[in-house]
Task: inverse folding
């Protein structure tokens, strides 16, 4: 078991290999579909002008994401009316939707780890090698279990995106993940995908006889 | 005026979101025992089962994606569906306030989250069916977006798959859907399959079959054999829990045959994640029971 503290040093990342179980401790942020698109459009492609608190949030993100972690998660949060926020349920969401954006965001902010589920593609894998960074797989649906590792909600940005899409700043302790894409070009997802395709093609050739 | 069921429906939502049905949990336990000790697949199932226990104990959502609430209301003559709809909607709003449901209804044009899980006539999804007898039954399923996204519909013949208009073609389509889904639908999942219908009706039926118990049998022996065969073959793909590789990729397959047009032959697959949240309540003589 690798016990990793955030912010993360490059040597720690290079030491992580596909299949390694890891626990994370420190401060991370959540971000999913709306956040990724907003960052790319406003600060990387610059196809839209910053407005409202955009620049202020960007400055906060630069600090939080440098050697930091982004967690693909749309939590269930209590205390919305009192602003005494607590994570009630907080498992990962499917990461592949961020594939068009993730690599560029990792490079832009020096992001060391992306947590989600289902894995990501070649663009993100390339960014993992360069930055360097890792893709960390949390257990999809294990929302109550993971929420217990979230000790404090330190703040929230872009709550106007909606509760699931907002940027939640959280302090975690022993947050459990598995490395499924490392900084050495290895991806468990690529391996499982190609093996399962081979099996599928073999199954195609079997006849179907159903006895009733 | 019939009794107000809002509080009972709220309890149905709470149970569905926080307490995984016994047949699903038992199936996950069997799956865990089959995976190799110390493997990522086994670790995933151990976490899943621990999460199921914590959620039940603490009455917190099993999964943060509390999905689209899908209600099927089977009611005797004399119930007002308009009143029932209002009661279901009130219960959904209250369940959201109590953190049993995540605010999940987003206007697709403005991106605004309504904040209370209400939207239009289709969110939450409510089906009404008037039935014989004097018992009212409400089935509820919470189906998350990750697994909904990997659902698929095939129009046969499909030349890419070499799938014709027969059960062999159906089998190819279903296995293709499982292989494409990889771990993204939160494997091990359960497949609801409709053969025939039109594009709309088939997707509805592919979800309706998911109200069946995991360990039941299909009344049609041929489809029963196909369900078992597809379960076994999907598990040979080796995708495993969370797509980590392993023996359990699906927990079961449920199939229904429908009528189709001469020109159409759809195979429609709804993928339900392992967090297979479905429960029901019955109301008879003012007595409410939950299953």
Result:
């Amino acid at each position: 078991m690798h016990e990793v503290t955030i912010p993360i040093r490059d040597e720690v990342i290079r030491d992580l290999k596909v299949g390694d179980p890891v626990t994370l401790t420190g401060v991370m942020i959540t971000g999913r579909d709306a956040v990724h698109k907003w960052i790319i459009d406003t600060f990387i492609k610059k196809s839209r002008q910053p407005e409202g608190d955009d620049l202020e949030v960007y400055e906060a993100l630069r600090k939080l994401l440098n050697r930091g972690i982004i967690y693909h998660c749309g939590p269930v949060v209590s205390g919305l009316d009192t602003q005494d926020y607590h994570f009630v349920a907080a498992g990962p969401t499917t990461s592949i939707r961020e594939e068009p954006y993730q690599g560029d965001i990792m490079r832009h902010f020096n992001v060391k780890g992306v947590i989600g589920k289902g894995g990501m593609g070649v663009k993100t894998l390339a960014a993992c090698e360069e930055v360097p960074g890792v893709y960390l797989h949390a257990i999809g649906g294990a929302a109550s279990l993971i929420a217990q590792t979230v000790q404090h909600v330190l703040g929230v940005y872009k709550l106007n995106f909606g509760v699931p899409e907002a940027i939640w700043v959280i302090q975690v302790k022993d947050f459990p993940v598995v490395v499924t894409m490392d900084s050495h070009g290895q991806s468990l997802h690529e391996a499982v995908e190609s093996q399962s395709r081979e099996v599928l093609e073999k199954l195609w050739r079997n006849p179907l006889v159903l006895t009733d | 005026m019939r009794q107000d069921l809002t509080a009972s429906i709220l309890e149905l939502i709470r149970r569905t979101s926080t307490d995984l049905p016994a047949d699903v949990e038992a199936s996950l336990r069997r799956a865990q025992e089959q995976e190799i000790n110390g493997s990522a697949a086994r670790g995933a199932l151990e976490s899943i089962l621990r999460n199921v226990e914590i959620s039940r104990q603490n009455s917190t959502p099993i999964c943060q994606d509390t999905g689209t609430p899908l209600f099927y209301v089977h009611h005797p003559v004399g119930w007002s569906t308009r009143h029932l709809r209002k009661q279901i909607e009130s219960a959904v709003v209250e369940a959201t306030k109590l953190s049993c449901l995540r605010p999940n209804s987003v206007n697709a044009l403005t991106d605004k989250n309504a904040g209370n899980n209400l939207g239009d006539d289709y969110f939450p999804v409510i089906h009404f069916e008037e039935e014989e007898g004097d018992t009212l039954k409400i089935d509820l399923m919470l189906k998350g977006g990750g697994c909904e996204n990997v659902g698929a519909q095939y129009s046969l013949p499909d030349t890419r798959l070499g799938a014709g208009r027969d059960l062999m073609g159906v089998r190819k389509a279903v296995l293709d859907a499982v292989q494409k889904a990889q771990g993204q639908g939160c494997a091990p999942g359960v497949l609801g399959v409709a053969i025939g219908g039109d594009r709309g009706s088939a997707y509805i039926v592919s979800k309706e079959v998911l109200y069946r118990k995991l360990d039941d049998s299909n009344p049609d022996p041929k489809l029963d054999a196909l369900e078992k065969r597809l379960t076994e073959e999907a598990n040979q793909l080796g995708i495993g829990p969370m797509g980590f590789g392993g023996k359990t990729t699906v927990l079961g397959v449920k199939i229904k045959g429908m009528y189709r047009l001469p020109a159409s032959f759809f195979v429609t697959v709804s993928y339900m994640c392992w967090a297979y949240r479905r429960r029901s309540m019955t109301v008879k003589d003012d007595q409410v029971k939950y299953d």
About this structure: Chain B has a mean pLDDT of 97. The two ends of chain B are 26 Å apart (CA to CA).
